[in-house]
Amino acid sequence: MARRSGTAYGRLMNKLRSPAQIILTFLIGFAIPFLFYVFLDSTFDVDIAPYCYVFVVFMLVSTALVVWVECFLAIFIKNDPPEQPATPYPPASAIIAAYLPNEKDTILETIEAFLNIEYPAPLQVILAYNTPKDMPEMETILAEMGQQRPDRFLPYRVVHSRSKAENVNAAVKLVRGEFVGVFDADHCPSHDSFMRAWKWLSNGYDIVQGHCIVRNGEDNLVAKLVAVEFETIYGIGHPGSAAVHNFGFFGGSNGFWKSGLLAQIGMDAAMLTEDIDSSIRVLLAGGKIKSDPGLVSSELATTTLRQIWNQRLRWAQGWFQVSLRHFTAVMTSRNLSLWQKVGMFHLFVWREVYPWVSLQILPLLAFLAYKMDGFGSINWLDSFYLATTLFTFSCGPAQVVAAYFVSAKSIRKRTLWWWMYIVFSMMFYTEFKNVIARVAHIKEFMREKAWMVTPRLLSRRRRTSGKSGKKGVVVVVR
Fold first, then answer.
1. What is the reported pLDDT for 50?
2. Using an 8 Å Cβ cutoff, are 442 and 75 in contact?
3. Cα separation, 276 vs 344, whole angstroms
4. Closest to 246 in 3D by CA, of 295, 288, 197
5. Do 293 and 234 meet the contact criterion of CB atoms below 8 Å apart?
6. Which residue, among 317, 245, 244, has the nearest Cα to 283 in the 3D structure?
7. How many CB atoms lie within 10 A of CB 102?
8. Starting at the edge strand that comes first in sequence, how are the strands of the sheet with 289-299 ordered?
9. CB-based contacts of 96: which residues, under 8 Å, 6+ apart?
10. CA separation (Å) from 230 to 180, 264, 469?
11. Given this model, what pLDDT does residue 349 score?
């Protein structure tokens, strides 16, 4: 008889599952390769380590080279929208997807930001939320706000929804705008974001993905590090990758769609990263996605390592799901060029394999020490080893430096945060994310698909003030 997770035994197993999976990744990625090298050498006098070493170095150096290229392209390629839209600004809509119990502390701040957006045509803001229980006080406030601004704001409870994807799919049926921005419930877009987005959409693009910046970096050390990391992702990674591969992605929030396309493609609630899945389906249908680092919206960063673990684990497992689902389709698609298929191979295969390959340097060095009677016998200053190691490690700091020059002013002025991130990422964070990626593979093969909600709280500054301070809208602090 199966034991339920609600029992003491079940709770204990849940707590031990992820640590056990971490250990399993190191058994697979370190112990097994090392023992395999020793077995071949001692049993058959066959040493394949030199060939494996060349392959690992090729992977590491090639990946570092791609990062360097993305840095240069993100900095030097012009990424400004056309000065004027191809057609006049049409009615627009925004969908804010919220799991209300989690976002009750931040949602009023978000709505306030949307009500203050400048746009020369009608702008409809739909709050599509789900909640497992009635929240009379909060829902009354939302209803009153809708009554005060019926031309702008519509609160909509998606009764049977259990996910962001279902909230978006339900809300798109209510959209009146020709294009629609999709946002998480902690986002505050810049005042001109809808005008800037339309300049891209009216000139041939189907989706434009903006730049998400962190506004609560002062909360603690983790928030500071995530603030800098987001600049490397949205300032360098996304636009640089789009420039290299000739396609972008919808990142889940601060992304603008042509309304008809969003209604047609929709979001798949079965996918952990429904945003990436929908992006691939758009590209397979011949759509064009633009990455614009100048299209800015602020959000709240995770503030603990546990939150980062849960969030990035979902991202990594979701990407792996997308890779498994769509690899064959993208490789055989007639709507993707050969170069775009190379880019898809890089994202779907190379990127998934890399966290395991990067670990292989350890069993290779351990086997070399085994063959040479100790680590002290290894020539650590070998010119080839030293040069490839330095070049591989250089890409991380290079990406941070590149991001600094294109970053949002609010983050760029925090010089200490950038130095902290360089040190932290080289000492711990990069491998931490590689561990997450490896564990995500294990969880997917074990058919674990738990969605861990990322807690959302007001920034420390807003919590201490207790109100928004604009237009008399009070932010309720629980």
1. 95
2. no
3. 12
4. 288
5. yes
6. 245
7. 17
8. 153-157, 123-130, 92-99, 179-184, 255-258, 207-214, 289-299, 188-189
9. 107, 110, 111, 114, 125, 126, 127, 128, 183, 184, 185, 187
10. 23, 30, 27
11. 97
* CB-CB neighbours of 6 under 10 Å: 8
Which segments of 186-304 does DSSP mark as H helices, in order?
Answer: 193-201, 221-231, 238-245, 259-265, 274-284
Round to whole Å and give the CA distance between 356 and 445.
Answer: 15
Backbone angles phi, psi at 388, to 5 degrees: -70, -35
Q: Which of 359-364's residues contact partners 24+ apart within 8 Å by CB, and which partners?
A: 359/26, 359/29, 359/30, 359/434, 359/438, 360/29, 360/33, 360/52, 360/56, 361/56, 361/60, 362/30, 363/29, 363/30, 363/31, 363/33, 363/34, 363/37, 364/33, 364/37, 364/49, 364/52, 364/53, 364/56
Contact call for residues 108 and 138 (beta carbons, < 8 A): no
Torsion angle, CA of 196/199/201/207, rounded to 10 degrees? -30
Radius of gyration, alpha carbons of the chain: 24
CB 391, CB 64: distance < 8 Å: yes
**DSSP assigned state of 91:** P
Tokens 């769509």 belong to 326
Length of the chain: 478
Contact residues for 68 (Cβ-Cβ < 8 A; gap 6+) = 394, 395, 398
pLDDT for the residue numbered 185: 96
Among residues 129, 130, 140, the alpha carbon closest in space to that of 96 is found at: 129
Residue 287 has a pLDDT of: 98
Segments in 81-192 forming alpha helices (H): 100-103, 107-115, 136-148, 164-171
Residues with pLDDT less than 50, the chain = 1-4, 467-478
| pTM score | 0.92
Measured distance CA(309)–CA(328) in Å, rounded = 30
Run of H or E residues at 129: strand 123-130
